Amino acid sequence: MISINNLSVEFSSQLLFDNINYVINPKDKIALVGKNGAGKSTMLKIIAGLQPPTGGSVAVPADVTIGYLPQQMVLEDSLTVVEEVRKVFSHVKEMHDRLDRLNAQLAERTDYESESYAELIDKVSTLTEQIAMQQSENCEAEMEKTLLGLGFLRTDFNRPTSEFSGGWRMRIELAKLLLQRPDVLLLDEPTNHLDIESIQWLENFLMTKAKAVVLVSHDRAFIDNVTNRTIEISLGKIYDYAVNYSKFVALRAERIEQQMRAYRNQQKQIADTEDFIERFRYKATKSVQVQSRIKQLAKIERIEVDEVDTAHLSLRFPPAPRSGDFPIIAEEVGKAYGDHQVFDHATFTLRRGEKVAFVGKNGEGKSTLVKCIMGEIPYTGHLRIGHNVKIGYFAQNQAQLLDGELTVFDTIDRVAVGDIRTKIRDILGAFMFGGEASDKKVKVLSGGEKTRLAMIKLLLEPVNLLILDEPTNHLDMKTKDILKQAIADFDGTVIVVSHDREFLDGLVSKVYEFGGGQVKECLGGIYEFLEKKRMASLRELEAAPKSLAKATETGRESKESKTAAAEAPAAPERKLSYAEQRERDKTLKRAAKKVEEAEAEVARREAALADVEARIAAGEVALEVFTDHSNATKELENAMSLWELAVMELDELKS
């Protein structure tokens, strides 16, 4: 579909891409990976036609459409959310207007037998078919689904876009992009401004409705779930794998190992050849052999080993001083800004050593409650901080609070006290700020480097309660893994505000959900919480959503009217319109297909397990066969769980 041919890009005499070739096929879901600065975002810009390459070309067929979501963009603020998103369907409105004009002409004409009248009839028929193909009757429904999926409330639809933060306005642009349904979607860090539920919705959309996708992301769970192909950019070259990211990591390790073996063998061959040349260079009897070896050495194509980040981030929080048994006790805590009640009646107790997550949609109060705990803002109710509790707080904007004019060394030197000041250089080196990097000014650091620097400040004083508000923003996957392990090893109490499922998985034992003005406790890890939420959302499918137009007209409903509506007797069921019935039939078909696919997957997993058991029955006793048996059992259990969920979803829809 899109062909990248001999692509080369050069910046300041430094080669970023060197004669790269690959093809983006229909339905490809590609993850672009590589270390920071490898050229991932540049590659997306070139494919989108926003940046010319130094050499080579990108061949895009004339009928192929491309949609591009950059990390940063300039947004207009003159319209409401609905008006801004509705611009996507302007071509459909133009088709309707044109059809109205043609029908008006037909009504005025009386020359029914003329050739021009027949041509007019053909135009009307063709345009009617085109509108039907666009499924324009579903435009409003699709718009509503997309906005709700990305976290907007129906009461937000008629608000001006200027009232929303940059992250929410980015969601508006993402909604417009998804509704355009381009042939190729180019997404640069699309999950940066999304909460967990919105990320899951986007995952499902990209897997089921999007065509070809090329994305850059540091969210491992997201790219694992969405992609089926991984392209790594390394040392100006690309390595193309027809697998998702997790499988790519294993294959890449094998590739590096093979390269290292070949490199070592070649280096030995070169050293032996050079040694022979040096020993016999001045012996007349060996001159022919020496000249032959010199030519042989010149012809050797040197093996390059792909860049391996050998810098190691050593992150370990200091031992936590012992605190009381209950570091935080919250009773009926609430916070309101004017008439807007962010949350109320929050009641919970944290035990010493617990690691918990605060999750929920943006704006529901996660960071607000953290500020209440820190005593930064007033609140209602009672918040008791336990005996000898020392809090270490990493704010969401911690990296931006650093003084850009200071050097890395001076930033730490100003907060270090006592003997620790003699070890500043060692500490900075452990965080990959060794040598000249410690003399860089903060303002020239990348987002990830600033986050690491802010983390060093947090480590300088022993604490027993860590509160981390979005600590993984701007961190690459390797650094996130190191931070996760450091938190897991920390023997104090931890509160993590995050939307990164992979980061929270295995780290927290309790989840507090913020939403609807409440704070709900959920025992178990992040995936247990998400499973329960999924079941809750299936039950919600029984309630028919309001139309977009009605939501726009009526605005925000009061809590009293919702309560009254819940207590009122059920109204007689409204007959579905033709468009609604079609949409419901499509949903049922998709759910039924999902059940069939899940059943087929269960059958495949059962067959795979049976094969392994047959190997064991035949007397195979190698460790590998028992590992295969364990993996096959887990895969079958996962497949069974997915089948059960698919069946329940279908049953819910039918009921």
Helical content band: 40-55%
Number of beta strands: 18
Q: What would the average pLDDT be, to the nearest integer? A: 80
Main pleated sheet: 6 strands, mixed
* Cα shape: globular
> Distance between the terminal alpha carbons, to the nearest Å?
42 Å
Q: Treating each run of at least 4 consecutive H or I residues as one helix, how many helices?
A: 21
- Give start-end ranges of low-pLDDT stretches: 540-574
Considering the chains and any ligands shown, give keywords for the structure:
single chain; 655 residues; alpha/beta; 6-stranded mixed sheet; 21 helices; 46% helix
Write a brief caption for the model:
This protein is an alpha/beta fold and 655 residues long.
Structure description:
The chain has 655 residues and is of the alpha/beta class. Helices cover 46% and strands 18% of the residues. The protein has a six-stranded mixed sheet with strand order 5-6-7-3-8-9, sandwiched between helices. Strands 14-15-16-12-17-18 form a six-stranded mixed sheet, sandwiched between helices. A three-stranded antiparallel sheet has the order 2-1-4, with no helix packed on it. It starts with a strand and ends with a helix.
